[in-house]
Amino acid sequence: MTLENIIKEKKGTIVDVRTREEFSGGHVTGSINIPLNEIQERFEEIQNLKSPLILCCASGNRSGQAQHYLSQKGIDCYNGGSWLDVNYYQSK
After folding, report:
1. How far apart are CA 23 and CA 37, in angstroms?
2. pLDDT of residue 92
3. Which of 1, 6, 8, 86 makes a 20 to 30 Å CA pair with 16?
4. Which residues form the signal peptide (predicted)?
5. Domain locations in the chain?
6. pTM of the predicted model as reported, rounded to 2 decimal places
């Protein structure tokens, strides 16, 4: 299944790893905000989310870092790139 289909069919959880300020300025409907610098301390919460996780941020850089870290820990996740791209896929 492609990332686009996972997003469109709401198969997982969209996690926005931008700061709270960035998230409050606009985000994907239904996404949750776990800033990149809180990933480690909120790991237990992350483990309980519906997987796969679709990680997004402003450009794909921070979500890529989060994806690398979480996949090393055994979490099923994808780097969705920019939240605007994820938002676009969800709206199709």
Report:
1. 14
2. 85
3. 1
4. none
5. 3-91
6. 0.97
Q: For domain 3-91, give its CATH number from 3.40.1190.20, 1.20.1250.20, 2.40.50.140, 3.40.250.10.
A: 3.40.250.10
Q: What is the DSSP annotation of the chain?
A: --HHHHHHTT-SEEEE-S-HHHHHT---TT-EE--GGGTTTTHHHHHTSPSSEEEEESSSHHHHHHHHHHHHTT--EEEEEEHHHHHHHHH-
* Dist CA 18 CA 16 (whole Å): 6
Instruction: Beginning with the edge strand found earlier in the chain, give each strand of the sheet holding 32-33 in spatial order.
Output: 32-33, 13-16, 53-57, 77-82
Dist CA 90 CA 11 (whole Å): 11
Report the residue count for the chain: 92
User: Residue 1 — pLDDT band, cuts 50, 70, 90?
Assistant: confident
